[in-house]
Amino acid sequence: MLREALIYKIVFMSKIVVGISDIKTSGNGEDVLITYALGSCIAVAVYDFTVKVGGLLHFMLPDSSLDPQRAKTTPAMFADTGIPLLFKSCYTLGAQKKRMKVKIAGGANILDNSNHFRIGQKNITALRKIFWRNNVLIDGEDIGKDSHRTVQLNIATGEVIVRGPNGILRKL
What pTM, to 2 d.p., does this model score? Predict the structure, then answer.
């Protein structure tokens, strides 16, 4: 009976896809937030275990000054506008900053063998600066390197899973 209940639970969980330059938040324990194909982009997962509220951001670029007009229409594209929006979106669902756990993945060096553009590294640096200025600690990370990742956040448990190259799963 327990096995059948687990199978039922897994089959009927709602998978919510977070696209590039997108944010999704939830307080529904049936939801799993997932973002695919992180290269130089970064996924930021936040979760408040007390109220079981979480959110996932997939940002592309470090600084909205690169394209201020785009930042107005798509704030999740940039670290400096997307990260605050992610936290504020979770606050509206009852989360509190002091209780939130933060996990990050991405920032890879993809298709830049000369290391000329360093978008992944710039994204990581921007994210760290924003968190440092706002007294936010990172509780788990899988960043850098040169491989794509997929990240999922289970709203029922707060568990963050990263799928790396060759389908290898890693819990943050």
Answer: 0.87
